[in-house]
Design brief:
The structure is a single chain. With 386 residues, this protein is an alpha/beta fold. It has two domains: 201 residues, Rossmann fold, CATH 3.40.50.450; 135 residues, Rossmann fold (3-Layer(aba) Sandwich), CATH 3.40.50.460. Helix content is 38%, strand content 19%. The protein has twelve helices and 16 strands. Strands 3-2-1-4-5-12-13-16 form an eight-stranded mixed sheet, with helices on both faces. The chain is elongated, with a radius of gyration of 22 Å. The two termini are 30 Å apart. The relative contact order is 0.16.
Length: 386
């Protein structure tokens, strides 16, 4: 008798996380799988508490709707797991005759699936564990990039471009736009796609990888304002001083995450107080990861591909891996799905490469060339290798 499948989401949702779920379910459907398909309601929390959604008999219409739905249709969580929780989860997998476990998420979620793999093996339980990459921060190691990032990057770039038009039309203030990315500056860097010519916004980009210096910040803003009187600054939420201290005191902490205060408000206030210039703050926040209107077609297709690749690996009993993306070519854009040992991505963090940072507060042309294919949806520029 065929074992059952469990598919879960972990961490923050994205605009395309359900596309990965769709891909995994389509792979199952086309394989002739005849077991049960469970989804724990709200991720590892639901798994631990045995609260399951039955996805076994979704209709074609429901699957198509799922593919285009933002957020997590099956819920997600940041429920912390330790030894006793993992031991209980392995027993739950046995209870429900689950032989395949797939988790979609970031590096923390890959730690979860990696530990389920480890504890199941320790208990002598046969279960195939596979990860599906997902993160708007693009901070998962080894894979070229992760689904969820490109759509969010596109949103940030479009937001900056629109805001720049407003500031250009009334050039009287400095606008500080805060973007997500606690320790990785990929999203801050993506704001550079807003430019269509030299001199366009963003005029200054502040990365968490570069230690923040308040006096230097004020001087850079002063120069930019004197030059154009309408300035767009993009700042990562995770800016830190040289000693690692966040520039804004954290408002909330968990075992694995730190939630910072409003960096953009702090910086705008600094500008007003120290330069006497009108300044305002903007913070897209959660909107940038749940907006469907600017979803990249490449991002959605790759999310589906990662779901299919992971499920195919699971059905082939390839254990302890995460599906990933290998870039074969940038022009034309060609990628190849790969499988990565889960140990290589558990709680690793791919920060924004220093080689892509220019003059501390800008990005190189090389980065723009790397990013463009992920958000440019001209079909003839996109291809996939099987």
């Amino acid at each position: 008798m065929m074992k059952n499948v469990l598919i879960a989401h972990g961490g923050a949702p994205t605009a395309v996380i359900n596309a990965s779920l769709y891909g995994a379910l389509m792979e199952l459907k086309e394989s002739g799988f005849n077991g049960k398909v469970y989804a724990p309601k709200f991720g590892s929390d639901g798994l631990y508490n045995e609260e399951f959604i039955d996805l076994t008999n979704l209709t074609d219409h429901e699957l198509e709707v799922l593919k285009n739905t933002p957020g997590s249709a099956i819920g997600s969580s940041r429920f912390p797991l330790y030894e006793k929780e993992y031991e209980k989860i392995v027993k739950i997998l046995v209870k429900y005759d689950i032989g395949y476990v797939l988790f979609t998420g970031g590096n923390g979620t890959m730690d979860t699936i990696g530990n389920i793999y480890k504890y199941a093996k320790k208990a002598g339980v046969e279960v195939t564990c596979v990860g599906i990459p997902k993160t708007i921060d693009n901070d998962i190691g080894v894979t070229d990039h992760a689904p969820g990032f490109a759509s969010c990057a596109n949103y940030i770039a479009q937001t900056v471009a629109c805001c720049a038009q407003d500031v250009k039309g009334l050039p009287i203030h400095v606008c500080v736009i805060e973007v997500m990315g606690r320790n990785a500056g990929w999203l801050a860097a993506s704001s550079a796609l807003a430019r269509s010519k030299t001199g366009d916004a963003p005029h200054l980009i502040y990365f968490p990888e570069i230690p923040f210096d308040e006096d230097e910040f004020i001087e850079e803003v002063r120069k930019a304002w004197e030059k154009r009187h309408g300035v767009i600054v993009v700042a990562s939420e995770g800016l830190k001083y040289a000693d690692g201290t966040p520039i804004v005191e954290p408002i909330f902490k968990t075992d694995r995450a730190t939630y910072f205060g409003d960096v953009s408000t702090h910086l705008a206030t600094l500008i007003i107080k120290r330069l006497g210039i009108k300044a305002r703050s903007e913070k897209p926040g959660l909107i940038c990861r749940c907006d469907r209107s600017l979803v990249s077609r490449v991002d959605q297709n790759e999310a589906i591909l990662m779901g299919r690749t992971a499920m195919k690996a699971a059905l082939n009993h390839t254990n302890g891996v995460m599906a990933g993306i290998k870039r074969v070519s940038t022009k034309p854009y060609v990628i190849e799905p790969i499988l990565i040992p889960i140990e290589k991505v558990m709680l690793t963090e791919a920060t924004f490469p220093l080689k892509y940072i220019k003059n501390k507060h800008d990005v190189t042309d090389e980065f723009i060339e790397w990013l463009k294919p992920l958000v440019e949806d001209t079909p003839e520029n996109i291809s996939f290798l099987d």
